[in-house]
Amino acid sequence: xxxxxxxxxxxxxxxxxxxxxxxxxxxxxxxxxxxxxxxxxxxxxxxxxxxxxxxxxxxxxxxxxxxxxxxxxxxxxxxxxxxxxxxxxxxxxxxxxxxxxxxxxxxxxxxxxxxxxxxxxxxxxxxxxxxxxxxxxxxxxxxxxxxxxxxxxxxxxxxxxxxxxxxxxxxxxxxxxxxxxxxxxxxxxxxxxxxxxxxxxxxxxxxxxxxxxxxxxxxxxxxxxxxxxxxxxxxxxxxxxxxxxxxxxxxxxxxxxxxxxxxxxxxxxxxxxxxxxxxxxxxxxxxxxxxxxxxxxxxxxxxxxxxxxxxxxxxxxxxxxxxxxxxxxxxxxxxxxxxxxxxxxxxxxxxxxxxxxxxxxxxxxxxxxxxxxxxxxxxxxxxxxxxxxxxxxxxxxxxxxxxxxxxxxxxxxxxxxxxxxxxxxxxxxxxxxxxxxxxxxxxxxxxxxxxxxxxxxxxxxxxxxxxxxxxxxxxxxxxxxxxxxxxxxxxxxxxxxxxxxxxxxxxxxxxxxxxxxxxxxxxxxxxxxxxxxxxxxxxxxxxxxxxxxxxxxxxxxxxxxxxxxxxxxxxxxxxxxxxxxxxxxxxxxxxxxxxxxxxxxxxxxxxxxxxxxxxxxxxxxxxxxxxxxxxxxxxxx
Amino acid sequence: xxxxxxxxxxxxxxxxxxxxxxxxxxxxxxxxxxxxxxxxxxxxxxxxxxxxxxxxxxxxxxxxxxxxxxxxxxxxxxxxxxxxxxxxxxxxxxxxxxxxxxxxxxxxxxxxxxxxxxxxxxxxxxxxxxxxxxxxxxxxxxxxxxxxxxxxxxxxxxxxxxxxxxxxxxxxxxxxxxxxxxxxxxxxxxxxxxxxxxxxxxxxxxxxxxxxxxxxxxxxxxxxxxxxxxxxxxxxxxxxxxxxxxxxxxxxxxxxxxxxxxxxxxxxxxxxxxxxxxxxxxxxxxxxxxxxxxxxxxxxxxxxxxxxxxxxxxxxxxxxxxxxxxxxxxxxxxxxxxxxxxxxxxxxxxxxxxxxxxxxxxxxxxxxxxxxxxxxxxxxxxxxxxxxxxxxxxxxxxxxxxxxxxxxxxxxxxxxxxxxxxxxxxxxxxxxxxxxxxxxxxxxxxxxxxxxxxxxxxxxxxxxxxxxxxxxxxxxxxxxxxxxxxxxxxxxxxxxxxxxxxxxxxxxxxxxxxxxxxxxxxxxxxxxxxxxxxxxxxxxxxxxxxxxxxxxxxxxxxxxxxxxxxxxxxxxxxxxxxxxxxxxxxxxxxxxxxxxxxxxxxxxxxxxxxxxxxxxxxxxxxxxxxxxxxxxxxxxxxxxxxxxxxxxxxxxxxxxxxxxxxxxxxxxxxxxxxxxxxxxxxxxxxxxxxxxxxxxxxxxxxxxxxxxxxxxxxxxxxxxxxxxxxxx
Lengths: 637, 728
Fold this sequence. Notes:
The structure holds 2 protein chains of 2 kinds. Chain A has 12 helices and 38 strands. Chain A is an alpha+beta fold. The radius of gyration of chain A is 30 Å and the shape is globular. Chain B is α+β, with helices and mostly antiparallel strands. Chain B contains 14 helices and 34 strands. In chain B, strands 5-4-8-2-1-11-14-13 form an 8-stranded mixed sheet. Chain B has an 8-stranded mixed sheet with strand order 23-24-22-21-28-32-31-30. In chain B, helix 7 (347-361) runs antiparallel to helix 8 (368-384). The longest helix of chain B has 33 residues, at 538-570. Mean pLDDT of chain B is 83; it is low at 3-26 and 518-526. Chains A and B meet through strand 3, strand 6, strand 7, strand 8 and helix 11 of A and helix 1, helix 2, helix 13 and strand 25 of B.
């Protein structure tokens, strides 16, 4: 069918003999890819716009990319994203015709970028589909992208979804514009860098070249691309107008802060309607902590998170009164509401900016790429509380893993800011623990279980439960606790308070577990640990992306199996201990009186594992899996 | 905060190449509607005084009242429908806020559509939602089913965040949506025009205290309608305008429903379906096109033999409907169809050839359009080669039976030739092989005269049901434990599929497979293409050959990848599908099985316990249905596509130096009227051999028969949990 989409192709017209050999060579190396990029050039240029009212610097990105087909009848989408601050223009495609190229008529697709997590945004994509009709043929695409303001030009990456033979990034900085080019993740890559001066045009030209670069691959537990892939970040510092006036852009953190503040100052806050709410929430509270909690928890519980990222709304918070009236808002609006309400209650609350876990930068980088989130910093009795209104079911003083250890830009009046860091909480914060007493009843295991969830597991538990209707909760909770395993029947579930975010979740229940014992003559095989912990952490042998563990994890089990009177222990699995800097595991089966006590304690720290660490990583988790599979053997007396 | 989407969106968005043009995202017309829109129902007490039944009080939200009014009018050139949907919902729980904090609607204000929304706060104040102009366009696929309206699929959908919605509030909204169809189906001399059929199901994901349906018909409009499965009947009510006819019904205290496995919704759930027609001239003469009442005062609620006769006569006399896809390619297809038949062929061979040709041409699942096409093409061949036939009409098993069938779209066609049925072709269908949409269905047979021109009579008929023994899946599983690594096992699965199972499991058949011939230029290529092929030089032919081989390889890789994905549902620890081969496509006779051979590697079936190994042999058969506790009690019937029989023969080589214990755990024997599950395990000549049979005996079970099926399913599930021990 695909063949019918292309007219029969005259090979001689479009493919040179040596190209077929080249494509065969790359197809062997990259069997999953349809094409390679033979040569790609990205050229960045800048232009000072000497408008009296609003002098600015425009940025332009010229892109030309040459593809070679590795397979027949494939396509190469080619284009770029744009938004209210930028546009993609003169997008065109060409195909090879012998050693020449001829332009082909291609439809320009203009579609909304996929961003399901956002309610409203302006990110769009313009692209063409380059036809790769036959193996070895070449296609070329070109376009240029215009940024209305150089501040919205943030970063560029060397990587692509297709393998690259050669890619050049050229940045031509005119004398009247000051731009720093910051290099990230260059270690381990051979990237040639040249700096030249074109005195005639008053340009400083930076040329980066990378060769033979493998494609991006999205795999389980892949880190955010900014953390591992080489890229450049543009710091637009200042420019000089024709009249000689020097205009600051983001020369310093203060400049960036001032820009954010200028947007905040445009908010039309009329918060009279909020005062009665603040009064009501704090009326019966006696301590400051109680009052702060009342406001923080009210915002968490009553304001629905809906993300708005259209134009300047992507940076400018909504008025607190609007968020309150709507009962929905994005992180900026929720931070503003929280800050406003706390101020009204008499506290020192401040709007703050932060890059979450996926952002690998700190505020020594002066670019809009440095943060992606807003929260409220509450200063009280010499301590700073970082309040994230978009979180739900998180206690005052507790911090979601995604902001722990991240630098925060906090407002501190006109022209002043503070830089602080969200505390990193110990692994214990995310403890999940399970204790159980297990008795054999016929061929089933009867278990009395107690589970405790803290930290991330606690908040995600509460968030999950609170999305389930009351009349379905018991059913869903039982399914969750049993892992939807038909063999596990849960009864006598303890009553829980699903609104209390300040105490760990403590669940108690009984479980009748079938099909975990096998009776063979006098022998009885019993599986006590059926958690299958971290078995999906064993990575495929052909993995290429680094592994990122984004949360500190701690899981502890203690299960006591009562040995039936007519049995004795024939076999217990051996103890296993792993003690590495980022991973600790202690698993043991021990006989104590008439019982077997199984203990398992696993601690995995937040970490980034490069490919050189994969062998050790897999060896560790294979050992764990072997322990997960173990069973005890009893013998009839 | 802005997440610099544009920097990354290219990587994301370019994965999809389906979308095209830039679209206006916001509603650009001013919404002139306001709370006055609600005035139409200001005297309707059900929107103000309601009593919520006790068993609804713990629901996360309750639909207090819902009124759907369909007002139909027509001129000779336009069918006009105004849908007025008025809904009032009490939000009881925070969980329901997610469903109602954003509402979705499909309106076009340029043609006069209107929407009004108000929020009744729990303190009694009323908030009018005026931000409708800020509604944002949304992909249809992202619209929750509770907001979807059907029969208006070209309309854009918008979403709007409802400000200030809190638990305890009541949300009320009203939509006026115009649906104008300016060019109804019109084929020379036809003077009857149909509105879209509408299915109004009464169950929702939330309980409904009261729901009302009004069907308002202008002059010269006729109504076909049916209340099904306990839905209340429509009644004619007085209208202020004597030229109009209005039907009304209401339903009270309808409980919420949850999804169930093996349920054909249209066969069980309460529903009122209706379709108005415009027939400006009397007497109504177009029953050959639509099933329509004799007079505008009477609702048509069933299909008669006369209707069938008129419809089938029309199909016989005008097999190719103008504007249908069939006509567009008719001449070219008929030419190729003729070319697929040799003049000296026997009648049986002719039937086989044309059937194979049609299945190669249309290889996907049947649709009504395709059904029509099949009939037209078949009659062309049968008449041309003087093969007598009758036309059989049955309701599609998934949507209706003879009692509830009402619309032409409810019906499917097939042929009876020499007392055998020929069903519409699809991928890997065989001549005379049955079809899941037809089996066991009662319908009508229209007997055709020898010349194939006239219907002699219409009688009742029942399509024979399919037996489980006709639809077999036989798996021969050979398991080998890797000597050097007990963690991995190789599993070679040779699978035989017969009957209806063959079509379900056909993963790939080339067009050649369907045609049942060697490549034949006269069929595959038109004249221009043949000339082009003849003109090619050797090098180009070789290149073309390479491309075809490459295309085949790519298809194979794709099928293998899809197979691996589907096998992951069976084997959670699938490591790799090493090879996959179709040993026999099973394309050429009903009793020829489709045969596949899959060589795969799976992990985690073997666990080391001390000096021994535990083999979870039960898991080698793949995952089995897990009937959860809350599924045990079932009120609805059980609708299964077809009866079937699964036979698995497992042979596992016992590794040298080991003995086997625990085979007795694999012996099962459940046999009842609904199903059967038997299994025996023995040790023989150094192998473990397990014979396993699982049978779904019927394609429909009453709710009372469900426990029988559950006992079979539970036994099969228990089998997957069993293990044996290899002892050193």
